[in-house]
Design a protein that fits this description.
Blueprint: E1 6-12, H1 19-27, E2 34-40, H2 47-53, E3 60-63, H3 69-79, E4 84-87, E5 93-95, E6 107-108, E7 111-115, E8 118-121, E9 138-141, H4 155-163, H5 165-168, E10 178-182, H6 186-189, H7 191-206, H8 208-228
Parallel strand pairs: 1-2, 1-4, 2-3, 7-10
Antiparallel strand pairs: 4-9, 5-10, 6-9, 7-8
Length: 229
């Protein structure tokens, strides 16, 4: 069985410090399995010049203004030709080989979260209480569906539920390679807005009881978060 072609999409904006590490980690994967698409939001800090250095190895890239990260990700979906799509944004990286022969779709990869100097491996959580695993670790079937621009931070959660990903995937496969997710981005910094959007999504898909349980679980964590920094 041949592995499906996977479109890896990287979204970046003014991140010249980290983009090269992300690009190199994607290009280190077996090329016959992937195509690589980079969507830049019109960077002015040298990011575009760095992307151009890899022009001969990147399948497609554009640099233009967008209406936020999910608009940029939708532009990547529009260009993607793969049977599967996955997103590895600037600052994140593949450590080792994350794709394998005979890989089914959809699929979940191992995710290791980096918080400063500490690292911890994610486990698949309950989809009724927020995003069960970082979206960087999910390979979606490419159905052509787009992210909703109604949500600015949690649209990946709604997108995953809409595709029914977690109804089919119950465990994270054992693998040597993994996705290294840098948890210092916009979502981590704007956790109140993120969880407000999560609450609305949970209510929409699972009803009042699960939304209340999520609120009771997350409210104490968010109140204590500034004290733990």
């Amino acid at each position: 069985m041949n592995s499906p072609l996977v479109s890896v999409i990287t979204v970046v904006y003014n991140d010249v410090k980290n983009i090269e590490r992300t690009i190199q980690s994607v290009l280190s994967q077996p090329q016959e399995w992937i195509e690589y698409i980079v969507i830049d939001g019109g960077s002015t800090d040298g990011t575009v010049d760095l992307i151009k250095q890899y022009d001969h190895l990147i399948t497609a890239w554009i640099s233009e203004r967008d209406d936020g990260i999910y608009d940029a990700m939708n532009k990547g979906i529009a260009l993607a030709r793969g049977d599967g799509i996955t997103f590895l944004n600037s600052g994140d990286s593949y450590e080792g080989s994350v794709f394998y022969e005979g890989m089914p779709l959809p699929e979940i990869m191992r995710v290791v979260v980096k918080n400063g100097a500490s690292r911890s491996e994610q486990r698949l959580g309950d989809q009724r209480l927020g995003m069960p695993i970082s979206h960087q670790g999910i390979i979606y079937r490419n159905t052509g569906e787009k992210y909703s621009l109604q949500y600015r931070i949690a649209s990946d959660y709604e997108f995953s539920l809409r595709q029914g990903v977690f109804e089919r995937l119950k465990t994270v496969p054992e693998a040597s390679g993994y996705v290294l997710y840098d948890n210092t981005g916009y979502s981590a910094q704007n956790y109140w807005r993120r969880d407000w959007e999560n609450l609305r999504i949970i209510y929409r898909y699972f009803g009042f009881t699960w939304a209340l349980l999520f609120a009771l679980t997350q409210l104490p964590k968010n109140l204590l978060r500034p004290l733990l920094v």
